[in-house]
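hey all, quick one before standup. I had two proteins in the batch that finished overnight and I want to keep them in one place so we stop losing track of which output belongs to which input. First protein below, input sequence then C-alpha cells straight from the run.
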Amino acid sequence: MEQTKNKTYPEEIAENVEGRLQSNYFDVMMAKVEDNQFMQTWFMYRMWPWDILSFMLIGMAFFKLRIFHAEKSNKFYLLMMLVGYVVGLTVNYYETRMVVDSQFDAVTMAKANQTYDLGRLFTTLGHVGLIMLFVKSGILGFLQKSLAAVGKTTLSNYLLTAIGTSILFYGFGFGLYNQLERFELYYVVAGFWIFQLIASPIWLKYFKYGPFEWLWRSLTYQKWQDLKVKK
C-alpha cells in the first residue's frame, strides 16, 4: 500500500497502460483487479443501486404514461426535446469546458461530476423527445426498423460490443489502448453502431431473439426456447 501511495501520477498512468496491454487475457484481468474490486464492491453497493433504481423508476413511469409509445402530441415531444437539450447540453458544456480547461485535472473532474446526473437526465429527455418525433414522422423507415432491431437485441449488442472493444484495445487483441486521439474514438463508436444497424435486422430475419437474449430466456424458463423463425 505504501508503495502505491509513493507513485507519481505519470507512473500510475504508465502502469495502467502497461497493464492493459498484456498479451494474455488473465494478465489483463489481474492488472485490473484492484479497479474491478472497487467497482464491484464499494461502488456497486453504495452508488449504483440508487443510480440504477432511480432511472428504472423514471423509465417505468414514462412507459406507464405511454410516453415511450409515441402516443403523445408532437408539441409534447417537441417541448420535451427542447427543454431536455437546452438544460442538458448547457450543463454538459459547462462540465466539459471546465474539465478541458483544467487539462483533465482529477479534482476538477470530481467537481464537474457533481452535476453529471442533472446533465445526463435532461439530455436523455431530449433524446426521448427527438426519437419519438422521429418515430411519429414515419420518415426513413429502414432506419427505424434497424433501430428497432437493435433494441430487440440490446443484451447481445451490449455484450458483443464489450467483447469487441476488449479485443480492439487490450493487448491480447490489437492493443490500441492509449493509441487513439479522443476524436478518433468516435470513429470506433460509429463503426460499432453501423455494424449493429446492419447486423441486427439481418439476424432477426432468421432468428426470434439475439443469441444472449435466447440464452437468458432459456435459463429463465429452464427450457430451451425456439430460436429460429419458422417459415
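OK second protein, same deal, sequence then C-alpha cells:
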Amino acid sequence: MGWLDVRTISRFQWVSIQALSLPIMGHVFLIEPLIHTAGRDGWISALISIPSGIVFVLLLSILRRKLQSNSLLTGTEEKAGRATSVILCVILLAYFLFASATTMRGLEEFVKITFLPETPLWAIGTSFMLLIWFSLQRNIESIARIAVIFFLLTMITGPLVGLTLMQEKDYARILPILDHGWGPALEGSLYYVALWGELILVLLLQTKWVGVRHDFNGFSFLILFNVFLGASMLMSAIAVFGLPLSEKLDWPVQNTVRQIKMGFISRGDIYGLYTMTAGCFIRVAVFLYAICECLAFLLSTTYKKLSVPVCLVTLFLSLLLFSNHQQLLQANHSYYRYGYVLLLLPIFLLILFRIKGGKTLENP
C-alpha cells in the first residue's frame, strides 16, 4: 500500500472538484456538438440524461459499499484477482489520459484564439502544466482546497453574469420545441450520458475521501447541477445568437459571455477565461492524479515519482495528437457519442464480484 496518500478530502471538497470538472465538458466543450446534434432541443437532451445519471450513481454507491475501505483497483484485485484489476487499470488509464489531453488542448486553443493569438500553443500548455505539476507535488487535499475556492467564486459570479446577459436574450429563439421530433434530442443526450462516466473517479480515490454516508445525495446533486448548467448555457447561446449563428461558433459559451455590458468592464469575456482556466486546472490536475494512482498501483511505487513523466506525456499528447481545432472537436464528438460504454463498468464489476464471491463460498 505504499502508493497510497493518507491525506483525505471532505464530501464538500469532492463535490467542489466535480462541480468544476464536469461543467467544463457539459457547458463548454460539448455545447458545440450538442447544438449541431439536437439544435434548439439540446436543453431537452440534458434533461433526458438525468435518469441514466441517477442509475449510474446508484450503482457507484453500491459498488463503493462493496469495496468498503479499498480503492477501486485494490478492491478489484482482492475480489476478482490481479488480472482483472490490471485490465481495469489499463481501461481507466486510457480514459483519463484521453480526457486530460483533450482538456489541455482545448484550454491551449481557447487561450490562444480568444486572448493570446501570437503565443504558441506549447508556451501556453507548458505554463499551465507547470502549475498542475506543482499541485501534484503537494497532495490531493491541496487540489481540493483550491477547488472549494473556485467553486464558491463561481457560485457567486455565475448568477450575476446570467442576470447581466438577460437583456441580450430572446428566448423565443429556442422555439419551436421538438420541431424535428425526439430523435435529435435523444441522440444529443448521449453526450451527457457519457459524461456521467467521469464520476467513477471517486472510486479511485476511495481511501482519500472522508464521508462514506450519503454518497448518493452528493452524486445526485452533481448530476442535477451539471444538467442545469449545460441546459441553461445552451439556451443562453441560442437565445442570444439564434440557432443558425450558434452552429457556426466554435466556442458558443465564450461568445455569449462576450456580450456582457457592465459599463466599467470593457472585456466581459474575462469571466470566460476565469471559468475555463479554473475548471480545466482542477479537471486536469485530478485526472493526472488518477493516472499517477493507476500507474503507482501497477508499479507499486508512489504517485509523486510518476508526476513528472505523466505531466510531460499529457502535454506532448495535447500538442501532437491534433493538428487543428477541427480534429479536436471531432475527437470529442466521436468519443462522447459512444462514451456511455463506460457506464457499464460498475455493472460488470458488481456481476464479477458476485460470481467470484459465490465461488469463494462454494470452495472455501
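Flagging for whoever picks this up: The first helix runs from residue 11 to 29. The CA atoms of residues 267 and 304 lie 39 Å apart.
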